[in-house]
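User: Please run a holo structure prediction.
Assistant: Happy to. Please share the sequence and the ligand.
User: Here you go; the ligand is heme C.
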Amino acid sequence: MVRSGIALAILTMSSATAALAADEAVSIEAGARIAVMGGCHDCHTSGYAQSGGKIDPANALKGDGVGFQGPWGTTYPSNLRITVTKMDEDAFVSFGHSFQARPPMPWFNVHAFSEAELRSFYRYVKSLGEPGEPAPAYVEPGGKPVTPFIVFAPPQMPAQ
Ligand code: HEC
C-alpha cells in the first residue's frame, strides 16, 4: 500500500516534470512566440502596431526612430538585433535577469522570463538576420530631439 502510494507519487511527479520540461524547451519558435506575447514588437518593431500585428521580417526588433518623451528625456526602443551581437547566450541570460533601462521600457517584465525563455528569445533575435542601424541616441531632459517623438506624460487635470 505504502509502496504503491510512493510509486504513484513518483509517477505523478515525473509526468509533471516532463510537462514542464516540454514547456521549457528552448527554440527559435518559442522565442518568436515570447516576443509577441511579451509585447516586445509593440515598441521594438517599427510599424508593428499600425499593421495590426504583422511582423515585417526586414524590421523585426530593429528598434524604432520615433522617441518617447517624458521627465526622463527622450528614449528610443533599442535595436535588439544589435544588443544580441554584443553578448553570447549565457551573458544574455544574466543581462535579461538584471538590466534596467529608462521608461517606457518595462525591464522588470524581462526579469520574469525563465532562463529557457531568455535563451529562446535570444535565439529568435539572432535568427532575424543582419542587425542594421542602431536606434537614435537617448536625448537628455530639456534636449531637442531631431526625430518625431511621442509625449508620454499624463495631462494636467483641470481644477475641480
Ligand atoms: C513601451 C515600449 C517598450 C516595450 C513594450 C518593450 N520595450 Fe524594450 N526598450 C524600450 C525602450 C524605449 C528602450 C530604451 C531605453 C533606454 O534608452 O534606456 C528599450 C530597451 C530595451 C533593452 C536594452 C537594450 C540594450 O542594448 O541595452 C532590452 C534588452 C529590451 N528593451 C528588451 C525588451 C523585451 C525583451 C521586450 C518584451 C518583453 C521589450 N523590450 C518591450 C521600449 C520598450
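The helical segments are 2-23, 28-37, 40-44, 80-83, 89-96, 107-111, 115-127.
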